[in-house]
Amino acid sequence: MNLSFENYIIRNFNDDDVDSLFKYANNINVSQYLRDSFPYPYSKQNALEWIYFIGQNNTNLAFAIADEHELIGGIGAMPNNDVHRLNAEIGFWLGEPFWNKGIMTKAVKVFCNYLFNSYNYNKLCANVFEGNEASKKVLLNTGFILEGTLRKNIFKNNKFLDQYIYGLLKEDFKR
Ligand SMILES: CC(C)(COP(=O)(O)OP(=O)(O)OC[C@H]1O[C@@H](n2cnc3c(N)ncnc32)[C@H](O)[C@@H]1OP(=O)(O)O)[C@@H](O)C(=O)NCCC(=O)NCCS
What 3-state class would DSSP assign to 12? Predict the structure, then answer.
């Protein structure tokens, strides 16, 4: 899979991504708003294992975001099942040196377009942790709306946090 936007690309992970993944993922400012499966500290071994795991079985639809030099972040969608099978949850992160340049807003728009058109999803959602204002903004920029708040539903770094659920219907998505 290759999705281009400006000077960036959303593509499959490859073995050459290990060093950049380790460099940018090993940052508490990134991991504090992600599930514990994205650990901190994030070791080179974690990077190696992730790329191996995704190479074996990419049911999570996980992809790298890269510039012309290297991997700078990641984006993915977790398919749901049963009555939720036409929904998927998206997740994303970007290396801190690249924040606040509009990169993720563009990446999420391109990725949602891909998911709606290539996988027949009717709805995409995202779960945002309390305090993550940049992520809320990216989702609002893409057309997601806040559909609900789960109070103190997250236990992260020894704190309970509210969880905000954002949703985007295919019929409301404008590229
Ligand atoms: C969330 C994240 C991906 C955003 O990426 P990005 O490329 O910097 O996002 P963009 O530049 O497209 O947009 C960020 C928006 O948030 C705003 N913003 C950034 N920090 C903010 C803050 N502390 N308070 C309010 N708004 C903030 C920016 O001004 C920008 O708004 P704009 O679109 O009106 O200009 C990045 O911060 C990140 O990787 N965070 C850690 C991991 C994470 O939270 N992932 C998402 C989990 S749901």
Answer: coil
Enter the DSSP assignment of 97: G
Instruction: Please determine, for residue 65, whether its predicted confidence score (pLDDT) is greater than 80.
Output: yes
Q: What is the dihedral of CA 153, 156, 161, 162, to 10 degrees?
A: -50
Q: How many CB atoms lie within 10 A of CB 148?
A: 9
Closest Cα to atom 44 of ligand 1: 33
Query: For 72-110, what is each residue's pLDDT tens digit?
Result: 999 999 999 999 999 999 999 999 999 999 999 999 999
- Which tokens hold the place of 98? 């690249």
Contacts of 78 (CB under 8 A, 6+ apart): 60, 61, 88, 89, 90, 91
The Cα 138–Cα 159 span in angstroms is 24
The pLDDT of residue 87? 97
Q: Which of 23, 38, 94, 98 to mutate to test ligand 1, by most ligand atoms within 8 A of the CB atom?
A: 94
Pocket test for ligand 1, best of 96, 137, 153 (most atoms within 8 A of CB): 137
Query: Please, what are the domains in the chain?
Result: 2-124 (3.40.630.30)
**Closest C-alpha to 132, from 95, 161, 112, 108:** 161
